[in-house]
Amino acid sequence: MFAEQTHDQPYPDIREAVRALCTGFDSAYWQRVEEQNAFPEEFVQALTKAGWLSALIPEEYGGSGLPLTAASVIMEEINRTGGNSGACHGQMYVMGCLLRHGSAEQKQRWLPGIASGELRMQSMAVTEPTTGTDTTKLKTTAEKKGDRYVINGQKVWISRVQHSDLMLLLARTTPLDQVKRKSEGLSVFVVDLREAIGKGLTVRPIRNMVNHETNELFFDNLEVPAENLIGEEGKGLKYILDGLNAERILIAAECIGDGYWFIERASNYARDRIVFDRPIGQNQGVQFPIARAYVNVEAASLMRYKAAALFDAGKACGKEANISKLLAADASWEAANVCLQTHGGFGFAAEYDIERKFRETRLYQVAPISTNLILSYVAEHVLELPRSF
Fold first, then answer.
1. In Å, how far from its chain's centre is CA 375?
2. Distance from first CA to last CA of the chain, Å, rounded?
3. Helix 12-22 crosses helix 68-80 at what angle (to 10 degrees)?
4. What is the distance of C-alpha 317 from the center of its chain?
5. Residue 155: what are its φ and ψ, rounded to 5°?
6. 155 and 184 together in one domain
7. How many C-beta neighbours within 10 Å does residue 250 have?
8. N or C: which end of the chain has fewer CB within 10 A?
9. CA nearest to 18, candidates 254, 303, 246
């Protein structure tokens, strides 16, 4: 089966090792986690202990110092084996802002703990209820008072807060009407959730269609030490955007893993399911959609590798990162629909895992950036068409 043919793909040793770990967390495990609406703690711990979640942290801080291409393979293989990287991918990329823009003292203070798994930094609080993607108009404020900043405001759709120790927070430190450019005046802070929750920070879980821990946050005079400011005050949006290319490439890899999983399931079922004395996969009406889905996943994977290679080379990759996320999200969603359609009624049965993965991969049409906004980015910044908003 094509899913086992890893010899001609990058990092075959990593693929095999991650796949071996993930086989210990089978369908029964994920169904149990789903039924209990629980966090896959044992799975995340196993990945952490094996060092996979510290892949991007430099060796000097206890990580592996691997390139983003290798990290994307890790995320792909988790989803390709039927798992869900959404529970842990934040530990891999959120720390990038600290790594690139934090002070030497901050990096030494936090990165070794993140690398070892002693500290979890899985959350990034940017989105707000009334502004959405219009980030420059966010209303959460951080007012400096002595050696501390006082935070007030609200965030929404903030993932993994209940399973993190540290969180990145983007807040406005200079009012919008007092800056020359609307992208200025925003700052990034590291919030120690162990100290903040219940002492100025209230967390309200949001029940949703996926077993994904996400929350609404309320800040009421939360005090954060001034030493937790990342980089320069007022340049936080630039720091956050700087890390989004890595996030999009890794999410694309997860979608690619989902796509391969769906295609393998659909192909196996179409090969084995006998109706009217012949395999349903013998019918072109069944095999053509599966074949097209496979073609599109393969194409998305190639764009993922191109984007990751540019990122690893330190070159501009905004276009490629966005395109890879769009292609991969579309390909995985197409594959999900094909897989469900191939299985017919059985695709809706929880024991087949298809309906769970179907819901999980649907998320990436919307987050971490919607496909429509990617098209808007390409239209404006690549094709030089007039800005649409």
1. 19
2. 46
3. 40
4. 18
5. -130, 160
6. yes
7. 26
8. C
9. 254
| 3-class DSSP assignment, residue 172 | strand
For residue 212, what are its two tokens?
């994904």
Say if residue 3's pLDDT is above 60. no
Q: What DSSP assignment string belongs to 119-167?
A: S-EEEEE---TTTTT-GGG---EEEEETTEEEEEEEEEEEETGGG-SEE
| CA–CA gap between residue 236 and residue 287 (Å, rounded) | 49
**Residue type at 135?**
T
Full-model pTM: 0.94
Tell me the pairing of strands 121-125 and 166-172.
Answer: parallel
**How confident is the model over 24-49, as a mean pLDDT?**
96
- Give the CATH number of the domain where residue 83 resides: 1.10.540.10
Neighbours of 355 (CB within 10 A): 18
Contact criterion met (CB below 8 Å) for 67 and 59: no
Helices (H) and strands (E) in the chain, counts: 13, 10
- Sign of the dihedral through C-alpha 211, 34, 201, 243: negative
Beta strand 166-172 with 214-225 is: unpaired
d(CA 285, CA 281): 8
Q: Which helix (H) or strand (E) segment is 354 a member of?
A: helix 354-362
Q: Mind listing the pLDDT tens digit for each residue in 302-349? A: 999 999 999 999 999 999 999 999 999 999 999 999 999 999 999 999
What one-character-per-residue DSSP string does 222-277 give? EEEEGGGEESSTTBHHHHHHHHHHHHHHHHHHHHHHHHHHHHHHHHHHHHH-EETT
Residue type, 60: E
pLDDT of residue 2: 54
Range of the domain at 104: 2-116
- For the beta carbon of residue 5, count every other beta carbon within 10 angstroms: 9
Looking at 116, 150, 169, the residue that finishes a domain is 116
Task: State residue 110's pLDDT score.
Answer: 97
Say if residue 223 is in the same domain as residue 324: no
Asked whether residue 301 is assigned to any structural domain, the reply reads yes
Regarding whether 216 and 194 lie in a shared domain, the answer is yes
3-class DSSP assignment, residue 327:
helix
Mean pLDDT for the chain overall: 95
